[in-house]
Every structure is written in structure tokens, then in C-alpha cells.
Automatic annotation (TrEMBL), chain A:
Biased composition (Low complexity): 194-221, 248-267, 324-345
Gene3D superfamilies: Mitochondrial biogenesis AIM24 (3.60.160.10), sav2460 like domains (2.60.60.30)
Gene (UniProt): yceD_7
Pro residues bias spans: 237-247, 283-316
One Pfam family here: TerD
Region listing for Disordered, in residue ranges: 175-345
InterPro entries: AIM24 (IPR002838), AIM24_sf (IPR036983), Stress/Tellurium_Resist (IPR051324), TerD (IPR003325), Trp_RNA-bd_attenuator-like_dom (IPR016031)
The name this protein goes by in its record: General stress protein 16U
UniProt xrefs under SUPFAM superfamilies: TRAP-like
TerD domain ranges (all copies): 1-170
Organism: Streptomyces jeddahensis
Automatic annotation (TrEMBL), chain B:
SUPFAM superfamilies the UniProt entry points to: TRAP-like (SSF51219)
One Pfam family per UniProt: AIM24
InterPro entries: AIM24, AIM24_sf, Trp_RNA-bd_attenuator-like_dom
Upper taxonomic lineage: Bacteria, Bacillati, Actinomycetota, Actinomycetes, Kitasatosporales
Source organism (scientific name): Streptomyces jeddahensis
Family annotation (PANTHER family): ALTERED INHERITANCE OF MITOCHONDRIA PROTEIN 24, MITOCHONDRIAL
Protein name stated in the entry: AIM24 family protein
Length: 566, 226
């Protein structure tokens, strides 16, 4: 039930969890790279005025132990314990950063995350990957910052220099001689024994194992009787079960556990759900099973005119930011697909009426806005995008559109099919919304692999992708041949389909209508098989499905077919 | 058989206008609370509803719409339930509550006759989309229903550092207080038939929202049928 953050998302901690004793885990890794993960306690001017509040490998905790470095555990490369209510008043911001030790750059980083765990429950997670960065050597992952109340922001901002530069940025002095370690890390806080494998007596404080490892349910860090019962309700992992720790969970249990009780049932909002509607912060979680507060019934106070200046500070989140992920995530607005929205009178105001259709916040280079529209943030990655001409519906920022010939091969496509594959190059900085003719869009992220897409079904792709046009000839194919673009490299291809496609595994007997096939994995081989089986009773010229493509390939290959025969 | 179809029965009326599914608008009609709807958008009704295409009052306000051939609106009055749709387009219901919105003419489905409305031409953009870009500005207290080919997206105009540019064919609605201007992205290449395909855009600036649809099909289907 962790809330997924995107870059730039913010939320009040109190909306995430009622606890103030938090575990912050950072996972970041890359081939051959080592990372220093540190926490900067900054003052109101965002300066490191007190370098005792720079928590890193040499200084594993602050004087009053409000921030402690815990080391690697439970799948996290580094972890911290943050006790918000013990943080001194002059610290206004905690910035969690990761810097590369030695050579390397952030673009080599694999998928990672920063997450917040409270009461044994992961309450927030901001996932990032190296694709969001380039040559940076450091990255500010997330901030806890004090604005009336403590809040969390997913920052994900790269930083060119290394740790020293980062330190300088925060106004710290770079002493070659780092401040002497106050205490070896291993001997850290008693109640906070490092992970189980360290043979520590009692890990009363253990984050959940990797959220993506359901089999680990209940196994990791089985809580031995905690030596320090006042372990602040840091009950061990595994959301759905009631915290097995005998520790009297001071704050976590009643407020957090209650709304989370039925996490399996996708209807329960994340703990922080109500925040977008500006409801009071300390509001207790909605009762279990309470349907997601839906856009059509926001409290009347929300009728915010669209031209209101900036959203009030308490607003916390970019509009629509409630959506945890962008793809596949059940829409918390519950806009019931196809089902009548019963008994949900529309609240007054244009903004309220359109709330369900808000732009999804920026997080990645490609963001699917809904099934039929996709946004590309050109500023992210700084590479141009090639898109089918005329597919732009809206853009913000300085974007330049220019003609891009499809090359010689593209010309052939044009001549043969009568419809030239015309591309435009979108360059600059800004966001471009692409859509075409109500077709469903599917961003496919290639990471070194290759895919063949029928040329008519390509909507857009990152320019760094290598592509070539292939021609599959066969009698009976309209236009004489089927044109296929094979993409290879690292980047995203957006494929459009009419209707919901079906993905089939390639078996020895996989056939597809050449007009309906959309894409296939490049390792599968397409063969034209003209199946003209004339039966005695067949009426002339109507053999129906005459030209099929047969696919051959090793297991693991797939083809994508749309319910629409062009 | 009834069992399987029962799921599509109308939900109890809760508001003046509601969605039935994504593509059907259900309007609870009452005497004295008339509705203006696009001609040809009615798909069914229950009760006593009367239709008057292009009534004089509407003709007066909308005399500029299209090329003066009158507004493609009909006044619906009576009591009952009225179902409207536009060739399977998504329907978006907005309770204005005192706000105002500008709607592209062909994306307007219906609105309360009690609202203030007027037809205006977007300056300098008359020749942009095929039929000229006419928009209807609606304000007041009442309901408006828009259509969108595919689920629309609402973009905050003021959010980007720069202006927001929209393909006029994909534009559905916008906040009337936005500044609108046309932009031609002419480049040398465009002159020899090699344009980027995005020759005209409408630029919006200011604080407000812009609604776009995931389709560049701006044909007015209700109008084509006549």
C-alpha cells in the first residue's frame, strides 16, 4: 500500500503516516559503482550551518540521535532512522542524497528508490532509474522539509559534482579530514540493531523486505522480543498482518493500521489519499472499505476557480498527483469505465467538473495521460523525439517541430502504400502531448532489445533509437508489401492500436492477419503464409483471410495484434 | 437475457445532468428549466419533452455561428429524462457554479438555457480549422455537457514556463480569461510541402485550463448528418 511518488511530488508526512519515527531506505545501484548515501540537515536557508547534522558514513548520527544511519538492510543500499519530533528547531530540511564514489555517472544507475517506512509499513516510495539522469555524479533523492508541518518531497534532481560539490552547495566546508566518526556504525543504537543477517540479537526495527518479494511474507526479521519496547512502534514488516512485535506500538497501530487493514482489496485509499482535496491534515484515515473519495464529490470548499493563483500550500500535491503510478494503476478517481457514475452529482465549478481529467504530473520522460494520450517531456533526457506528423495535440514550453523524412526506406513505404510515413522531429524544452485519432497508445520501453512494429502503428519514438524499415512482401498484401520498422537500442517507442490489443506468445502455430498485426519481438521471424484453401463451396474471390503471417521464434517471443484490420 | 442487460439500466437521477457510461448524457428535464442541445444529439427520451430547433432567441445570439446558417441548437423543454450522445464521443459534464468556460462549437453537446452564453470568433483564427473556429462562451449557474473524442486531458496553462500551444483540431475547451493567439510555425521547409504537419497552433497564456482531446478529428458529426 505504499504510495508511489513521482519526481516533484510532495506530501505531508502526517498524511502518509501518523508516526514520526520513520525509517528511510534508499536503494541505488549500478554496475561497478559504489554510492555514498547521506542526509543533510539544513537550516531555514537551506544551508548546512551545523555540520553535526550531516549524517554520512563517518558520522552515523546527529547529537540527539534524531537522524541515524543504519546501514544496508532489507534490500536497501542504505537506511536511516529519522525521528521527526526530536529534530531540533533549527533544522528545517533533511535532504537525502546519493553520490557516486569514484568514477561513473548517474545514467548508469539501475532502477532504485527511496522509501519511507513507518510502523512496519512502507508508506511512500519514490522510484527512479538512471534513465532520468545523465552525467550527474550525485542526486538529491528526496527531502523532508518543514513547512508548517514536516513534508516529504520526491526530488530526484541530479547534481553534477560529487559529494564535495554537494557539500559546498549546502554551504558546508570541505575539510579533507572529514569530521571524525563519533561512533562506529556497527555499534549503533541498541534498539536499532542492523539487519537480521548481522546476527544482531533483536532487530526490533526492520523495514519490510523488498516490497516486490511477496514470498518473503512474514519470514524476514522475525521479531525477537525487542530489548527496547519503546522502539516506537517500529514494528517489523509485512503490511497486512498486524504487527507481530510485542512492542507497544505507540502511535502507529491505531491510525495507520486501521485504514491499511484490507490492503488486498484495491478499494481502500492510500493513507494519504484525502490530501488533494485539502482536507485537514490530521484527519484519521478513512474507515476500511470506505470507497475512494471520488472526484465528483469533493467537499464543496474545493470549488477552486481554475485561475486561482498558486494552490494553497496545504494543497501539497500537483493536481491529479494522487495517482500513484501512471500506468495500470487503478484510477483513484474511480472514473468508472463504462459504468454509470451513479449518485455522484457534479460539484460546482469548472475545475471540479474536470478534475477527473487533470493532467498527470510529470515524473518521467514519457507519461501516459490516459489510454489515448501520452506526454513526452523533452527537457528530460534532452533528446529529440520523432513523431508521426500531425499527432501533436498540445505542447507547453519551447518546442520546435520540423520535418523529418523517413529516409530512403521511408520513401519506399510512401510510394508503395500510398501513405508516406511522415515524421516530425520535436526538439527543445517542454512537454508535448501526442495522440492520434482516438487510438490507444502503448509506450514500449526498450532497454537494448529490439521490436518490430508495423509502420502504420508507430506513433512516436525517441530519436536515439536505431530503426530500420523492413519490407515483408507477399501476394495479396495490400500495396504489395507490409512495412515494418525495427527498433533497437534504449528508448521508448509509442505504438498505437485501434482497440485493446492482444499479446500472443509465439508458438509453432502462431498466425496473424497481416492487417491486424501491430508488433512482434524482433527475434521472431515473420513468414508470409498464403492460406488459400479453396473448398468446393467457397464463393469466388472471397476466401476471407487469405494472407497471414506466420511467426517462428524461440519461446519467449510474442506478437501484438489489434482488433482492427486496417 | 434481462439479467445481463440490467447492468445498463439508468441509475437514479441525482443531478440535472449526469453521465450514463462514458458516452451518454442523461438530463433530468423539468418544465421551466429548458435545455439547449445540439440538433441531432437526442438518442432517447422518457416523458414529455418537446424540441424546437433553432428557436428565435437562440438565432439572435448565435447568428454568427458557422456561416450564418443559424445555430445547430435546439431548445428542449418539458418533463422527463432526456438522453443525448454524439456518435460515441466521451461526454463530460460540468456544473459551472458561477464559473465560465469557452467551448469549441463542435464539442458542445448541451447546456442549461438559463446560462449566459454567446458565440464568439477567436480573433485571427477564423481560417484555422476547416469550419473556422467558433467558440461558445458559457457562464452562470448551471450545467454544461461537452463532448470529446476520447478521454480528454486538462492542462493547467499557467503551469508551464511558457505558453501552451494547442492543435486547434484537438481543442475542446478553455478558460475564457486566457489570452489566445494564433501561431504559425512556418519554416522554410513548410513551404515546399514538407511542413511538420503542425502548421497552425493556438497559443494560450495566463492562468487557467485548456482541455484537449486525444484526436485531431474535429469534424462535426452531428452537422454532417444534417
Amino acid at each position: 500500500m505504499a504510495r508511489e511518488f513521482q519526481r516533484g511530488h510532495k506530501a505531508r508526512i502526517s498524511d502518509l503516516t501518523a508516526g514520526t519515527d520513520l525509517y528511510v531506505g534508499v536503494q541505488i545501484s549500478g554496475p561497478g559503482l559504489t554510492f555514498d548515501i547521506s542526509c543533510f540537515g539544513l537550516d531555514a536557508n537551506e544551508q548546512l550551518s551545523d555540520d553535526r547534522y550531516f549524517v554520512f558514513f563517518n558520522q552515523p548520527k546527529t547529537p540527539e540521535e534524531s537522524i541515524q544511519l543504519l546501514g544496508a538492510q532489507a534490500g536497501d543500499t542504505e537506511s536511516f532512522r529519522v525521528t521527526l519530533d526530536r529534530i531540533p528547531a533549527h533544522i528545517h530540511k533533511l535532504s537525502f542524497t546519493a553520490t557516486i564514489d569514484g568514477a561513473g555517472q548517474m545514467s548508469q544507475v539501475g532502477p532504485g528508490y527511496i522509501r519511507i517506512v513507518a510502523g512496519g509499513e512502507e508508506v511512500a516510495r519514490y522510484a527512479f532509474s538512471g534513465a532520468e539522469f545523465s552525467t550527474e555524479r550525485a542526486v538529491m533523492l528526496g527531502d523532508f522539509y518543514l513547512k508548517d508541518v514536516w513534508r516529504f518531497a520526491a526530488v530526484g534532481q541530479g547534481f553534477d559534482g560529487g559529494l564535495e560539490a554537494l557539500l559546498k552547495n549546502f554551504g558546508g566546508e570541505v575539510a579533507e579530514e572529514e569530521p571524525a566518526a563519533q561512533q562506529p556504525q556497527a555499534g549503533g543504537a541498541p534498539g536499532f540493531a542492523p539487519p537480521a543477517q548481522a546476527a544482531a540479537p533483536a532487530p526490533s526495527f526492520a523495514p519490510p523486505a523488498q516490497a516486490s518479494a511477496p514470498p518473503a511474507f512474514g519470514t524476514p526479521a522475525a521479531p525477537a522480543p525487542a530489548p527496547e519496547p519503546a522502539a516506537q512502534g517500529f514494528a517489523p514488516p509485512q503490511a497486512p498482518t498486524p504487527p507481530p512485535a510485542p512492542a507497544p506500538s505507540v502511535h502507529a497501530a491505531p491510525t495507520v493500521a486501521a485504514p491499511l487493514a484490507p490492503p488486498g482489496a484495491g478499494t481502500v485509499p492510500p493513507p494519504a489519499a484525502p490530501s488533494p482535496y485539502g482536507q485537514p491534515a490530521g484527519q484519521p484515515g478513512p474507515p476500511p472499505g470506505y470507497p475512494q473519495p471520488q472526484a465528483p464529490t469533493p467537499p464543496p470548499g474545493y470549488g477552486q476557480p481554475p485561475h486561482a493563483p498558486a494552490p494553497p500550500p496545504g494543497y501539497g500535491q500537483p493536481p491529479g498527483g494522487q495517482l500513484p503510478g501512471q500506468q495500470g494503476a487503478p484510477s483513484p478517481y474511480g472514473a468508472p469505465q463504462g459504468a454509470p457514475q451513479a449518485a455522484a452529482p457534479v460539484a460546482p465549478g469548472v475545475a471540479a467538473g474536470l478534475e477527473a481529467f487533470r493532467e498527470k504530473p510529470t515524473g518521467q520522460r514519457w507519461t501516459q495521460q490516459n489510454k489515448k494520450m501520452i506526454r513526452v517531456d523533452l527537457g528530460m533526457g534532452d533528446t529529440p523525439v520523432l513523431a508521426r506528423q500531425g499527432s501533436m495535440v498540445l505542447y507547453q514550453g519551447k518546442v520546435d517541430f520540423s520535418y523529418k523524412g523517413a529516409g530512403f526506406a521511408g520513401r519506399i513505404v510512401g510510394n508503395a502504400t500510398g501513405q508516406e510515413m511522415q515524421l516530425m522531429r520535436c526538439t527543445g524544452r517542454g512537454q508535448v502531448f501526442l495522440a492520434e485519432n482516438e487510438t490507444q497508445l502503448h509506450p514500449i520501453e526498450l532497454q537494448g532489445d529490439a521490436i518490430c512494429v508495423s509502420a502504420e502503428n508507430v506513433l512516436a519514438f525517441d530519436e536515439p533509437l536505431q530503426y530500420e524499415v523492413r519490407r515483408i512482401e507477399g501476394h495479396g498484401i495490400p500495396g504489395g508489401a507490409l512495412f515494418v520498422m525495427q527498433f533497437q537500442g534504449t528508448g521508448t517507442v509509442v505504438v498505437k492500436t485501434h482497440g485493446t490489443p492482444v499479446v500472443l506468445p509465439v508458438t509453432p502455430t502462431t498466425f496473424a492477419d497481416c492487417n491486424a498485426v501491430v508488433a512482434w519481438s524482433a527475434a521472431a521471424q515473420a513468414i508470409v503464409s498464403s492460406q488459400v484453401r479453396m473448398r468446393a463451396g467457397a464463393y469466388a474471390g472471397a476466401s476471407g483471410e487469405s494472407v497471414n503471417l506466420q511467426f517462428r521464434g524461440a519461446p519467449g517471443n510474442f506478437i501484438v495484434v489489434q482488433p482492427y484490420e486496417v | 437475457m434481462n439479467k445481463q442487460l440490467a447492468g445498463y439500466a439508468p441509475a437514479p437521477v441525482a443531478a440535472r445532468m449526469e453521465n450514463h457510461g462514458n458516452n451518454i448524457l442523461k438530463v433530468a428535464m423539468q418544465t421551466g428549466n429548458d435545455l439547449l442541445a445540439r440538433v441531432g444529439s437526442m438518442i432517447a427520451y422518457e416523458g414529455f419533452v418537446q424540441y424546437e430547433p433553432n428557436p428565435p432567441a437562440v438565432r439572435q445570439i448565435a447568428r454568427d455561428w458557422m456561416t450564418g446558417e443559424g445555430a445547430p441548437l435546439m431548445k428542449c423543454s418539458g418533463d422527463g429524462l432526456l438522453y443525448l450522445a454524439d456518435y460515441g464521443a466521451d461526454v463530460v459534464v460540468i456544473n459551472l457554479g458561477g464559473d465560465a468556460i469557452s467551448v469549441n462549437g463542435s464539442n458542445l453537446l448541451a447546456f442549461d438555457a438559463s446560462l449566459q452564453w454567446g458565440v464568439e470568433r477567436v480573433k485571427g483564427l477564423a481560417k484555422f480549422a476547416g469550419q473556422g473556429l467558433w467558440n461558445v462562451k458559457i457562464s452562470g449557474n448551471g450545467y454544461v455537457a461537452l463532448t470529446s473524442r476520447g478521454k480528454p486531458i486538462v492542462v493547467d496553462c499557467g503551469r508551464g514556463e511558457d505558453e501552451t500551444y494547442v492543435d486547434p483540431d484537438a481543442l475542446v475547451a478553455w478558460s475564457p480569461n486566457l489570452k489566445v493567439k494564433g501561431k504559425r510555425s512556418f519554416r522554410a521547409g513548410a513551404l515546399v510541402g514538407r511542413g511538420s504537419g503542425e502548421a497552425y497552433q493556438m497559443g494560450f497564456s495566463g492562468e487557467g485550463i485548456v482541455v484537449v482531446q486525444p484526436s485531431e478529428d474535429s469534424t462535426d458529426r452531428l452537422r454532417i448528418r444534417g
